[in-house]
């Protein structure tokens, strides 16, 4: 087993797995196995009000029926508040995080004229923050904490550019200040933002390779910036094709995606493979997965080398 490759699947237990989430899970599992690495499962229940009781157990049961078993006990984000608080404190002390008093309505009203504030936005995206509270709250109570995203500060501290080589999509880049602005680290309701939680957990689990759906590619620049500021290892990324519904939109729990039909798990895995461009074969789950690993090795670009920590980067111990 390649100890230098650690992948993960990180579902949000807001509902049972559907066809789209199985495609992402299968791709990440196949990539880990094809590289002789480890594959972990992390339950991303940081947004607790949206996670019905027992849904996490259902998700784990669905994965198990498909033969997708974590190489370590699953990790729950809802049990990791102290780790996120430590990371936020470090960003505050370094001058990168600041309190914000703005409501969503105020941010929407501050958008440029002609901007459709009600337009559909991808998962974990936000309206571009206008920087209202960068220089103080002006007597108003703090609601959230945000990360400075300005390019001039990044240049002063010699941070790397926000670009990465996606293993499927190729060279990607984003102007974080224009596309997102100062993004949230801790929400007004006291819950931790996805971007901070995922970066902290990827670092603490030693994740070297992130394989996930293409809808999350837009999140990568925010995570790259946090990884650089926290001095942790930057993983490789591979964003997979999305499964689309009959209306042409991404299949998701939000638009009523049906739960996986696991009457015949092997057939369900074969169908998931088709969305990845893989012609999987086999009558049992074990046979389909074994064939999938061989097929993945022959069709997907391999991870050429294991990522190295940034100079002076934090270790897992540093973040605990």
UniProtKB/TrEMBL annotation:
What detail does the entry give on cofactor binding?
A: Binds 1 zinc ion per subunit.
Which positions in this protein are listed as binding Zn(2+)? 100, 102, 129, 133
Which PANTHER family does the entry link to? GLUTAMATE--TRNA LIGASE, GLUTAMYL-Q TRNA(ASP) SYNTHETASE
Q: What is its EC number?
A: 6.1.1.-
Which coenzyme or cofactor does it need?
Zn(2+)
Highest taxon listed in the record's lineage: Bacteria
Family statement drawn from the similarity comment of this UniProt entry = Belongs to the class-I aminoacyl-tRNA synthetase family. GluQ subfamily.
Q: Where is this motif: 'HIGH' region?
A: 11-21
Q: Which residues form the signal peptide?
A: none
Q: Which residues bind ATP?
A: 253
UniProt key word Aminoacyl-tRNA synthetase: yes
Task: Specify residue ranges for compositional bias: Polar residues.
Answer: 302-320
Q: Name one GO molecular function term.
A: ligase activity
> Which residues are in the Glutamyl/glutaminyl-tRNA synthetase class Ib catalytic domain?
8-258
The answer to whether UniProt assigns keyword Electron transport to this entry is no
Q: What does this protein do?
A: Catalyzes the tRNA-independent activation of glutamate in presence of ATP and the subsequent transfer of glutamate onto a tRNA(Asp). Glutamate is transferred on the 2-amino-5-(4,5-dihydroxy-2-cyclopenten-1-yl) moiety of the queuosine in the wobble position of the QUC anticodon.
Give positions of region: Disordered.
300-320
Q: What is this protein called?
A: Glutamyl-Q tRNA(Asp) synthetase
What is the main EC category here? ligase
Keyword set, alphabetical order: Aminoacyl-tRNA synthetase, ATP-binding, Ligase, Metal-binding, Nucleotide-binding, Protein biosynthesis, Zinc
Q: Where is this motif: 'KMSKS' region?
A: 250-254
Amino-acid positions noted as binding L-glutamate in the UniProt annotation, renumbered to this chain? 8-12, 44, 194, 212
